[in-house]
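Entry 12.
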Amino acid sequence: MKPPNHRTITVAEAVAQFGIERLLGDDFDDLIGDRLNEDDSCLVFDGATTCAGDLDLNRTQPVAFGEPWDRQRHGLIVVDGSLAIGQIDMRGVDGLLVLGDLICDSIHLCETLVFVQRGLVARNAVRATADKEWHENTAVTLGPLYVRVHGTVSSPVVETWCMPLRHLSWTADSGSEETLVLR
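Predicted 3D structure (tokens):
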């Protein structure tokens, strides 16, 4: 069941209401403007949001905030406050903006925007992967483009593949970044 503090607005309304273009600066078009239409839907949670469920659109039966997810209805998620949730898999999500802290069991980052205004705590793991062919043929460093956390990041396990996260401010008790080699 979704927490009661959600509403649906258009991406254009979200950009205006939350100053998303200002938050993302020169990268706005690459991250939001070119990916979503202005009239696409945006799911907004007003205030601090806690959810026992997961955000995982990569499953055969996608689930978000404890209930089935209609990918055609919502592409961008904005939390106007802090978010506490189980696991997050960003594959299949067009963007997640948390205008507070993000606390989760684990998070799988990919080539889609995750913006956290304050800190990120992943109790179990942070994983980041990107398309190897695209990564090898571009000068863009994907981690700093897609993953933006303005506070510290804490996780006992940090695994990356073609998407380094060295730009983040890791707490001293976090695991060191392990670059995976897939064969």
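Annotation: Residues 6-179 form one domain. The longest helix spans residues 11-18.
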